[in-house]
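Fold it.
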Amino acid sequence: MIFQPAMLRRAERTHAVKPISLAPANFLLQPEATCSVAGWGRTGVHMVRSSTKLQEVTLKTADDKQCQPFFDSFNRTSMLCVGNIKTKQSSFVGDSGGPLVCKGVAQGIVSHGKDSGLPPAVYTRISAFIPWLRKKMGRE
């Protein structure tokens, strides 16, 4: 799996745009943590277009073993497994790049999932890239 982390210029702060804390370096989020994901992705397999309304869903992180059978390249040090097969809720096509927020802290970034849209899905683990971010920002 190739990661493409990027740093963007920050937006102007408004009542709707505020900074969020990032997970500490190398922090390992435990399974069953309650998190939320927001995005404009498709809301169903048969939908052709992405949503015109920002969608949000509450999900739980999963044990890494739930992702390994579906995603050969799954790597627990740089990825998070998110979603419960029983709930059938997940991020989907068009949500990539969106935040996974747990207790007010950005823990992950939507990466990829199954073509069916069913959980679990794979997220980039932000904590794995904190050293890279610090280096790029000159804050080692």
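The radius of gyration is 15 Å.
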